[in-house]
């Protein structure tokens, strides 16, 4: 009799345990899909930032008199447009992206980009750089917010996620601003006092951010992987060549070839984006709890 009375209790216990397992599995699947959505958003935003930065640098050269960059400028504009179109189509079912990428902000961003492209010929180089930089800053804010909301599965991920969506993008942007000013100076053949002050500040900031990236990634589980070491070495080499180029201009050698200055800075920036892509590829292919860096 007592055994029969205990049967409902046992059944309820088993039902509760089964429900808990289902909830846990559902939560894991939801987090995995959230991360997959985040990877898509962050990857597309990274590409958009990269092409906006290149468009800014080429615009600076073009507005400072180097009209040979026209075809490349047009190509970068088309690439940026394609990534903006992709962003508008991405899923946000698990990411709640509307909270970090409000429609009104997005529509304003697109309108400002179209206006910049339409008015570029009438701008001076400094205004062009300022307007590009404002757009890039907005895209970087979205990258940081979406990445922090979706990519980290726990405290063990904070180091590499912070580097991916904060320190590395900040380094790319400091390098990108330096590229725009440096290539413009070289194209014009003259370094103004304002440009000299700005380049000196950016050189210092690039050094600081490069160290911050290395420190953040050294604290992550990826720090001993060959891909990480090689990626950081490429960044260091590119940063040092960029700093040498900036130092040359700061000491009065303003007449270097604009394409050369653009290329030196681009080498460093490309190394930053390569490491970012590797980290993101690791997140895309990883099993829960293990995020190997893609070589």
Automatic annotation (TrEMBL):
<dbReference type="Pfam" id="PF08376">
    <property type="entry name" value="NIT"/>
</dbReference>
<dbReference type="InterPro" id="IPR013587">
    <property type="entry name" value="Nitrate/nitrite_sensing"/>
</dbReference>
<feature type="domain" description="Nitrate/nitrite sensing protein">
    <location>
        <begin position="47"/>
        <end position="281"/>
    </location>
</feature>
<protein>
    <submittedName>
        <fullName>Nitrate/nitrite sensing protein</fullName>
    </submittedName>
</protein>
């Amino acid at each position: 009799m007592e055994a029969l009375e205990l049967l409902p209790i046992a059944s309820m216990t088993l039902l509760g345990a089964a429900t808990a397992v289902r909830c846990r599995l559902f939560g894991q699947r939801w987090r995995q899909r959230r991360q997959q959505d985040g990877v898509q958003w962050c990857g597309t935003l990274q590409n958009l930032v990269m092409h906006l930065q290149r468009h800014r640098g080429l615009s600076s050269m073009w507005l400072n008199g180097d009209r040979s960059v026209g075809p490349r400028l047009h190509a970068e504009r088309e690439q940026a447009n394609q990534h903006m179109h992709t962003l508008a189509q991405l899923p946000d079912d698990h990411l709640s992206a509307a909270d970090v990428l409000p429609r009104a902000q997005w529509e304003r961003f697109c309108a400002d980009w179209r206006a910049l492209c339409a008015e570029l010929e009438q701008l001076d180089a400094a205004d062009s750089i300022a307007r590009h930089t404002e757009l890039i800053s907005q895209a970087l804010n979205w990258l940081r917010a979406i990445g922090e909301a979706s990519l980290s599965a726990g405290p063990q991920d904070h180091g590499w996620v912070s580097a991916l969506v904060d320190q590395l993008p900040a380094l790319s942007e400091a390098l990108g601003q330096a590229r725009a000013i440096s290539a413009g100076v070289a194209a014009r053949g003259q370094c103004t006092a304002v440009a000299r002050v700005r380049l000196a500040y950016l050189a210092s900031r690039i050094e600081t951010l490069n160290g911050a990236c290395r420190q953040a990634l050294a604290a992550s589980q990826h720090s001993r992987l060959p891909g990480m070491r090689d990626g950081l070495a490429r960044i260091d080499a590119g940063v040092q060549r960029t700093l040498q180029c900036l130092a040359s201009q700061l000491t009065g050698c303003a007449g270097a070839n604009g394409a050369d200055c653009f290329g030196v800075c681009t080498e460093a920036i490309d190394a930053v984006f390569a490491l970012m892509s590797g980290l993101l590829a690791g997140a895309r292919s990883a099993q829960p709890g293990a995020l190997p860096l893609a070589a």
